[in-house]
Amino acid sequence: MALEGTLRDFSLADIFQLIGLQRKTGVLTLRGKDDTVTVTFLDGKVVAADSLNRRLETRLGSVLMKSGLLTQDQLNRALDIQKETLQRLGYVLTHYGIISADALKQAIQLQILQIVYRLFRWKDGDYHFSQETTIEYDRDNVVPITAESILMEGARMIDEWPIIEKRIRSYDMVFRKKHIAQEIVVVGAEDADEVEFDQTPAASRRKKAAASDKIRISDEEKLIYDLVDGTHTVGDIVEISRLSEFDTNKALYELLTRDLIEELRISKAQTVVETTPLDESEVAETPVPLPLVAVLAILAVLSVVTSMRNPANHFAPFGRPLSAVGETRKAISLQRLETIGQAIEKYNVTNGRLPDRLQDLAPYYVSPKLLSDPWGNSYKYLPRPDRYLVIGFTPDGKVDTDLMLQRQIDVGPATASPAPKNGEKGLVLVD
């Protein structure tokens, strides 16, 4: 059977229905503007799916790791074995007892469904179905999915996605929990407070929910509610959650509609600093290298003397020493940020990954007492898969935009941006 054309002429639902009804075996290839996706069918049932931009093998390890089922070290070990044996990553993970077979099946099934369901949002693209007599797929870990079940879920998504997107406008949005007086209880999906996808004003829904002493949410909504912390973006939550992309967004929509969460409109870095209390145990007196102290002290004294002798200076002479001391400490803080950045990159080269927290750098890569600034504030650290951010503070504990060290980095050999030249302000580096 030769089946090809464009999605404008023949919808994805029609294609799936035709392949399912005729129980065909083969590979459906869909090419869109930004991606190419292949869906493999066996007797009309989906048994595999892959995306050019979101490779299943690559994302499988990422999903397992972000779900807490796999550590970075375990994934690295499995990838090394895979290179030597040329076996599937899933086989390596289960054969060597790194994860359970059930966890692997759940992750693979979820990834296949996420790739397929994302296709239902395509409005244009070319498709081609190549009929085959036999196909290869992971028979040990994949349960064939009927085209009918996919179409039923796809139809629901087509109806509800536009409504969800009106409130979940971008995957860069960040939400935080709201303070509420009512108790939140977790119940079965059929007993949870219902959120209708219609034009009912949100105020009416809130009023209806307020009539009860408790707010009833489902297990899926509780899972997403726990991931909302004022730092994770919607994209982060989609990656971390074990739910599908659609179910994750729907749960966020329902939590937002019930006024259990709200959008955070300030920057994520600022959010972390302002909402995360400092761990007093991490704050310690920090010795400064004596040669650096001597040089900076001389510069500070010269700055004060020069300022006092400058006829253009109309400020009182007793107002300058405090500023000079502040600038000196800021220079020390800049130096410490640079030292921390170098330590992070050495750690990455040695371990093939970024440290989970700054404390992991001590004592082999940096002195533990250099992890706080001259005012006693512990530096904040935000690791991401391809970058890191270290944040410094002003004397009163607020974020100092001149004291932000952000660098792109590859897992493995460090590819950090060069340090700022003398005289440049701050350590703010572009992405």
Could you please describe the fold and organization of this structure?
The protein is α+β, with helices and mostly antiparallel strands and 431 residues long. It has three domains: 2-164, no CATH class; 169-265, Arc Repressor Mutant, subunit A; 282-408, no CATH class. The protein has helices at 12-21, 56-66, 72-85, 89-95, 101-119, 147-167, 202-210, 219-227, 234-240, 245-257, 268-275, 290-309, 320-351, and strands spanning 2-6, 26-31, 36-42, 45-51, 126-131, 145-146, 174-177, 183-186, 214-217, 261-264, 380-384, 387-393, 399-408. The strands form four sheets. Strands 1-5-2-3-4-6 form a six-stranded antiparallel β-sheet. A three-stranded antiparallel β-sheet has the order 11-12-13, with helices on both faces. Helix 1 packs antiparallel against helix 6, helix 2 (56-66) packs across helix 5 and helix 6 (147-167) runs parallel beside helix 10 (245-257). It starts with a strand and ends in a 23-residue tail after the last strand. The model is unreliable at 199-210, 278-286, 307-322 and 413-431 (pLDDT under 50).
